[in-house]
DNA sequence: CGGCCGCTTGATTCACGTCAAACATTGTGG
DNA sequence: CCACAATGTTTGACGTGAATCAAGCGGCCG
C-alpha cells in the first residue's frame, strides 16, 4: 500500500478538526468529538473511491490527513469535481437523512480516514445540541461553497476561475492551520483542476503559466506559494463571506 | 401593486407544501406545518428582491405561489442564478445557523410568500423531530440540486444544459402537482435561462430554437410543453436520483 | 535504467460570445 | 380601444476563448 503521501506530510501535525472550531462548542464537546471521530481510523491510498454514487453509507467519514474530493459523473463519462475536502473536514453528515449518495467521494492523496457508525454519531448529536449545530454549520458552509463554485464556473473566466480555486484552497488551508507563511500543500494535478473548473487540462496548463508569469503564484512539488494573496483575491473576485468563518471560535 | 400573475395562475390551487411530502410526517405534523407557514402571508411583485446577500434575516420564507430564485453577483455585476424556487418550497431554513445570507433571494413572478419568525419555527422544530427532519431533507435536496447545477455548467454543452434545466423544472413542477399533462408554467425569460446556465441570452435563444426544431419542447406564453420527456431526459443526461424523491410519502 | 504519469508546446477548429439592429408581444395610460 | 413604451425574442455578421488533436519533454518510482 502506498503510504508515501502520509509520511511526506511531515511531522504528524496536531489534529485540527474543522468541526471543533464551531464557536458554540465547549471544551468537553470538543473532546467528545475528537474521541468519537478518531476511534476507528483507516488509511486509504491515493486515487481510490471511498464511497460511490448510489451507495447507502453506514458510516460518517472524516478526513484526518490528506485531501479528498467529491465528484459526479455523467452517463457518458464526463466528470465534474464538486469540491475538495481538506484535513479535518467531515465528508457526509447528510447520510442521516438521505438514503443514497448522489455523488462519489474519492481520495486525492493517501488519506487517513476516521469512520463513525451512523448510530454512534446520531447518539452524540442527540446528547449534545451544540455538536448537532456544529455539524449543520459545516454542512451549510459546504452548501455555500457549492453555490460559489456554480457561480465561478458560470461567470468567471478561466483565469479568474483558477485564481478563485487557489484562493479558496489557500484560505481554507490557512484556516485549518495547514499553511506555512504563504505556502500550502497542493496535491492536485492540472487534470484535477481541469475537472474542478470545467475546463481542459491543456487550457489549465496555459492559464497557470500565465498566472506564474504574472507573479501571482508558484506551483511545484505539490506545494503552492501565493506571492500576493491580496492581488490573487482581487483578480479572482474573491470574497471570503461565503466561507462563513464568523462562526469559528477563532474568528 | 401588480397581482396579475397571481390571478393568471388560474383557480387558487390547493396549497401543496413540498415540506409536507416528507414521508415521516404524520397528518398532525402536516397540519401544524401548514398553519405555521401560512399564518402570515404577503405578496411581493415580480422581479423584486426578497432578502439580499449580507442580510441577517429574521424570518423563514416559503413560496406559496409563484416562482422565486437564488442568485449571487460578482463585484463587477456579473450575475449567476443558483436555483429556482417553485410554489410550496422553503427558501432559507439555514438562517437558523448562518448569520448572514451569502446570496440574494428574488421573485421571478409575483409571489405569495409565507413568513415565519425564526423563533416560531425553531419551537416547532424542537417540538416535532419529524418536522426538523423534513426541514433538513429539503435543505439537503437543495444541496444536491446545487451539485447537479455545478456539474451541468461544468460539463454539459449548451444544448444539454438547457435541456437539463427544462427536465428539472418540469419534473419538480410535476412532483408539486403543478403540471397539466405535458405542460407546466414557465415564467422564465431567455435572459433568466442565460443567467442560470452561464451562457448569453443570444445563444440561449438559438439553442432553444434548435430544441424546438428537434421537436423536444414548445415554449410560449409563459408555458412549457414537453413533447417527449424521455427523449428530453436522454439528451440532457438527466437522472432523477439527485432530487431524492424517495423520501416523499407519495413515492 | 526504463516506464509511466504529469506537464508543456504547437497547430488548428469550433462553440459560444459580442455587437447591433429589427421585430414581436404584452401591459399601460390616455 | 388604440398607441406607444417597455420588455422579450429573433436575426445577422463577426470575433475570440477555449477545445481538440498530436507530439515531445521531464521527473519520479519501481
Automatic annotation (TrEMBL), chains A, B:
<dbReference type="InterPro" id="IPR014710">
    <property type="entry name" value="RmlC-like_jellyroll"/>
</dbReference>
<dbReference type="Pfam" id="PF13545">
    <property type="entry name" value="HTH_Crp_2"/>
</dbReference>
<keyword id="KW-0805">Transcription regulation</keyword>
<dbReference type="InterPro" id="IPR036388">
    <property type="entry name" value="WH-like_DNA-bd_sf"/>
</dbReference>
<dbReference type="InterPro" id="IPR050397">
    <property type="entry name" value="Env_Response_Regulators"/>
</dbReference>
<feature type="domain" description="HTH crp-type">
    <location>
        <begin position="156"/>
        <end position="230"/>
    </location>
</feature>
<dbReference type="InterPro" id="IPR036390">
    <property type="entry name" value="WH_DNA-bd_sf"/>
</dbReference>
<dbReference type="InterPro" id="IPR012318">
    <property type="entry name" value="HTH_CRP"/>
</dbReference>
<dbReference type="Pfam" id="PF00027">
    <property type="entry name" value="cNMP_binding"/>
</dbReference>
<dbReference type="InterPro" id="IPR000595">
    <property type="entry name" value="cNMP-bd_dom"/>
</dbReference>
<protein>
    <submittedName>
        <fullName>Crp/Fnr family transcriptional regulator</fullName>
    </submittedName>
</protein>
<dbReference type="InterPro" id="IPR018490">
    <property type="entry name" value="cNMP-bd_dom_sf"/>
</dbReference>
<keyword id="KW-0804">Transcription</keyword>
<keyword id="KW-0238">DNA-binding</keyword>
Amino acid at each position: 500500500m502506498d503510504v508515501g503521501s502520509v509520511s511526506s506530510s511531515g511531522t504528524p501535525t496536531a489534529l485540527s478538526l474543522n468541526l471543533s472550531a464551531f464557536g458554540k462548542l465547549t471544551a468537553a464537546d470538543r473532546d467528545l468529538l475528537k474521541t468519537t471521530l478518531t476511534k476507528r481510523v483507516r488509511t486509504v491510498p491515493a486515487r481510490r473511491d471511498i464511497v460511490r454514487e448510489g451507495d447507502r453509507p453506514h458510516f460518517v467519514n472524516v478526513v484526518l490527513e490528506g485531501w479528498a474530493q467529491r465528484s459526479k459523473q455523467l452517463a457518458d463519462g464526463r466528470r465534474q469535481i464538486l469540491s475538495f475536502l481538506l484535513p479535518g473536514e467531515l465528508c457526509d453528515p447528510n447520510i442521516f437523512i438521505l438514503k443514497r449518495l448522489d455523488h462519489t467521494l474519492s481520495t486525492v492523496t493517501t488519506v487517513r480516514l476516521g469512520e463513525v457508525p451512523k448510530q454512534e454519531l446520531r447518539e452524540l448529536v442527540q446528547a449534545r445540541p451544540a455538536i448537532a449545530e456544529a455539524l449543520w454549520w459545516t454542512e451549510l458552509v459546504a452548501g455555500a461553497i457549492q453555490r460559489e463554485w456554480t457561480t465561478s464556473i458560470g461567470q468567471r473566466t478561466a483565469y479568474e476561475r483558477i485564481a478563485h480555486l487557489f484562493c479558496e484552497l489557500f484560505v481554507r488551508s490557512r484556516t485549518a492551520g495547514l499553511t506555512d507563511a504563504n505556502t500550502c500543500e497542493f496535491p492536485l494535478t492540472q487534470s484535477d483542476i481541469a475537472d474542478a473548473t470545467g475546463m481542459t487540462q491543456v487550457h489549465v496548463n496555459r492559464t497557470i503559466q500565465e498566472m506564474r508569469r504574472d507573479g501571482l503564484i508558484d506551483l511545484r512539488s505539490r506545494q503552492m506559494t501565493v506571492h500576493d494573496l491580496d492581488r490573487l483575491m482581487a483578480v479572482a473576485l474573491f470574497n471570503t463571506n461565503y466561507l462563513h468563518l464568523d462562526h469559528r471560535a477563532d474568528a
